[in-house]
Automatic annotation (TrEMBL):
<dbReference type="GO" id="GO:0006355">
    <property type="term" value="P:regulation of DNA-templated transcription"/>
</dbReference>
<dbReference type="InterPro" id="IPR052155">
    <property type="entry name" value="Biofilm_reg_signaling"/>
</dbReference>
<dbReference type="Pfam" id="PF00990">
    <property type="entry name" value="GGDEF"/>
</dbReference>
<dbReference type="Pfam" id="PF08448">
    <property type="entry name" value="PAS_4"/>
</dbReference>
<dbReference type="InterPro" id="IPR000700">
    <property type="entry name" value="PAS-assoc_C"/>
</dbReference>
<feature type="domain" description="PAC">
    <location>
        <begin position="221"/>
        <end position="273"/>
    </location>
</feature>
<protein>
    <submittedName>
        <fullName>PAS domain S-box protein</fullName>
    </submittedName>
</protein>
<dbReference type="InterPro" id="IPR013656">
    <property type="entry name" value="PAS_4"/>
</dbReference>
<feature type="domain" description="GGDEF">
    <location>
        <begin position="554"/>
        <end position="687"/>
    </location>
</feature>
<dbReference type="InterPro" id="IPR013767">
    <property type="entry name" value="PAS_fold"/>
</dbReference>
<feature type="domain" description="PAS">
    <location>
        <begin position="397"/>
        <end position="467"/>
    </location>
</feature>
<dbReference type="Pfam" id="PF00989">
    <property type="entry name" value="PAS"/>
</dbReference>
<dbReference type="InterPro" id="IPR001610">
    <property type="entry name" value="PAC"/>
</dbReference>
<feature type="domain" description="PAC">
    <location>
        <begin position="470"/>
        <end position="522"/>
    </location>
</feature>
<dbReference type="InterPro" id="IPR000014">
    <property type="entry name" value="PAS"/>
</dbReference>
<dbReference type="InterPro" id="IPR000160">
    <property type="entry name" value="GGDEF_dom"/>
</dbReference>
<feature type="domain" description="PAC">
    <location>
        <begin position="93"/>
        <end position="148"/>
    </location>
</feature>
Length: 688
């Protein structure tokens, strides 16, 4: 219904007669959305003309008389200014605007979705603005509630110690939490099919039976079975499998909560089996692990540690950990080993000496406790040599970047994805006379023209979405006051997660290129000799004149001019003086025209003039006569007085033609009829 109201206003179906006003009120009052018809009084002055009943009775602004009052009459300045700015924007841009806002009135938060539509009079001026506001307070609150519920769900999924697996009714994996990935060793991507690799082959029939029972709305709680990790080790698990229902009670999926109970089962197994599992874990662990005696000597080493140390079991057995460490850390480890009562885990970073090569590692010392007594230690080594070298390489890379940026003539900036300036190269300080990075964001945006700012803002938003580079051209004014064109190339910098967290923008001075482009445009659309629009540009203006006159129901005249003795001037005085003659002719014609008229050189000594908004042919004859009189006056060409004349043929739109070709054809016929009748004459097509 609100769209019908908008159509009525947009299509000019407003009748101000007394019997239509009640009808409009009736139509608007039947709509639950808030409808405001605002009259444009002056810049930033908008008056309520019509307000429907929903707005009067349900809008948070209560017990006020809307009609005849201005926005600032009903709202305080802080709330009125952004609203007035939006109405003014619709008026200035002459196009609709849709936005959502939030406002607190008398302690009540109101959230609305508003569309503003400009309404024009027959002259094309915006005289009214139609505002339709939908109260979305409840919707926003529900969305926030849903977001909170989702946040709780995600928190439960990610922070619970139990592994969680969710599948749909086709047994496709929908969700897994990090605990399940850690438990089984498989990522969600590796579990994307309908085959579950962590189910041992002999347990697949059992697992399918549990799934079928859940699909039949029968849950399973505390079911104990065996599962297999990605590294091949098997674990004992306790599972609770439940169907997931939608709001109508239909089963749409299955959730499985898995708890590792291996340690419970291990207590029930024989000591030999326990030792076997321990050795398997120790052997296949990807982290280097050393089993140390109380004195810190190596008792056992897993393959990962042998590979890291580049030693065999025999070479490493009996070696003290302190022998591999720098002196200061070696002394601390020896003291730690002597305190048998210490049961806390400790860690430190060390440079290990491995075959004359330095390896950087995080060393974790974990006590081995038996019957409340420390009997040994595990030394778990996390080799971070590659990471440290990468960090150093990154630091050097950043230093190189700053070195390049600090000495580059290009303008180099680093922004956040939201436009916050983090870094500005010295070339910007040199160009502007100050460092833009020291300015607040509000002042930075004022340094760019509004249209350019919108293009840059849209480019940043798209770059953040798709992670693709972009190029925009900007006109910036430096400390000299001279405007300079820059081609700005924005390149996104991605995080490890593939998210854009920085945008590097390099601005290159393209003023000379822009100047060359402008020259090319002038060559393409302007006559090189007279500087007047050429035939191509004049015909384009004539086409636009036809469209505008048709829309506004106006008339205009096309004057087609041809020299009566140009060939004689060329033959008698030469082509150079002929060119000078044409330039003088063009200047005289321009002096006879109004700002709203257009002129162009069609070719040779042929010219065309568009006289816009002509009321009658008498006006055309008057202007044409003034032009002929000017063109009859003598011309001074290199000290020689030359006299010449022109003939004019005139066609009127729409009487003599409604297309470009028809108007030129009828004007040309009138022109050459005049030439046959003696030249130096004005003939309208209607005179033929």
């Amino acid at each position: 219904m609100a769209d019908h109201v908008r159509d009525i206003f947009e299509k000019g179906m407003i009748d101000t007669t007394e019997h239509m006003i009640p009808l409009l009120h009736m139509l608007m009052d039947g709509i639950s959305d808030y409808i405001f018809l605002m009259e444009v009084i002056a810049p930033n002055r908008f008056k309520y003309v019509l307000v429907n009943q929903s707005a009067k009775t349900r809008h948070p602004i209560e017990d006020v008389e809307w009609e005849g009052r201005f926005i600032e009459d009903l709202l305080d300045r802080e709330k009125a200014e952004p609203l007035i700015e939006r109405y003014q924007n619709v008026f200035d841009e002459n196009r609709p605007l849709t936005y959502e806002d939030e406002m607190e009135l008398d302690g009540t938060v109101f959230r609305g979705h508003t569309s503003l539509t400009p309404l024009k009079n027959q002259g094309g001026d915006v005289t009214y603005i139609l505002g339709i506001t939908r109260d979305i307070t409840d919707v926003v609150e529900k969305e926030r509630d849903l977001n909170r519920i989702n946040a709780v769900y995600r928190s439960l999924m990610e922070n619970t110690a139990d592994a969680i697996l969710v599948i749909d009714t086709n047994q496709k994996v929908v969700e897994v939490n990090s605990a399940l990935e850690k438990l089984y060793g498989y990522t969600k991507q590796e579990l994307s099919g309908d085959v579950f690799p962590f189910i041992p082959k002999e347990k697949q029939e059992e697992a399918q039976s549990i799934i079928d029972r859940a699909l039949e709305n029968e849950g399973v709680s505390g079911f104990q079975t065996v599962r297999e990790r990605k590294d091949g080790t098997r674990i004992d698990v306790s599972m609770t499998v439940s169907p997931i229902h939608n709001e109508v009670g239909e089963t749409i999926g299955i959730s499985s909560i898995v708890r590792d109970i291996t340690h419970i089962k291990e207590n029930e197994r024989k000591l030999a089996a326990s030792r076997s599992r321990y050795h398997s874990l120790f052997k296949h662990n990807p982290h280097p692990i050393l089993t140390l005696n109380l004195d810190g000597t190596v008792q056992n080493a897993n393959p990962a540690s042998l590979k890291m140390m580049n030693k065999s079991d025999e070479e490493l057995a009996g070696v003290s950990l302190s022998e591999l460490l720098p002196d200061e850390q070696a002394k601390w480890v020896e003291e730690y080993c002597q305190h048998k009562d210490l049961e806390e885990d400790v860690w430190f970073q060390a440079s290990l000496r491995v075959n004359q090569e330095e390896r950087i590692a995080n060393v974790f010392l974990v006590p081995i406790i038996n019957e409340d007594e420390r009997v040994g230690m595990y030394a778990i080594l996390d080799d971070i040599t590659g990471k440290e070298r990468a960090t150093e390489a990154l630091r050097q890379s950043e230093a190189k970047f700053r070195l390049i940026a600090d000495h580059s003539n290009d303008l180099i900036c680093v922004f956040s994805p939201y436009g916050e300036l983090y870094y500005a190269s010295p070339s910007l300080t040199k160009f502007f006379g100050f460092n833009p990075a020291e300015l607040p964001n509000e002042q930075l945006t004022q340094m760019i023209e509004f249209d350019d700012l919108m293009r840059v803002s849209n480019a940043f938003k798209q770059c953040f979405i798709d992670g693709q580079a972009f190029t925009v051209t900007l006109e910036l004014t430096g400390k000299t006051g001279k405007a300079v064109w820059f081609e700005c190339r924005g390149t996104p910098v991605l995080s490890d997660e593939g998210i854009v967290n920085r945008i590097v923008v390099v601005g290159r001075d393209i003023s000379e290129q822009k100047k060359y482009e402008d020259q090319l445009k002038r060559i393409a659309f302007y006559d090189y000799l007279t500087g007047l629009p050429n035939r191509r540009l004049f015909e384009d203006r004539l086409e636009r004149g036809i469209v505008q006159a048709s829309r506004k129901n106006q008339s205009f005249a096309l004057l087609y001019l041809d020299g009566d003795s140009f060939k004689r001037i060329n033959d008698e005085y030469g082509h150079d003086m002929g060119d000078d003659f044409l330039r003088l002719v063009g200047n005289r014609m321009k002096e006879c025209l109004r700002e709203s008229d257009s002129i162009g050189r069609i070719g040779g000594d042929e010219f065309a003039i568009l006289l816009s908004d002509i009321q009658d042919t008498g006006h055309v004859r008057q202007i044409s006569k003034r032009i002929l009189n000017q063109l009859r006056l003598p011309y001074q060409l290199n000290g020689v007085k030359v006299v010449s004349s022109f003939s004019i043929g005139v066609s009127m739109y729409p009487a003599d033609g409604q297309s470009l070709d028809d108007l030129f054809r009828t004007a040309d016929q009138a022109l050459y009829y005049g030439k046959r009748e003696g030249k130096d004459q004005i003939w309208l097509y209607e005179d033929l």
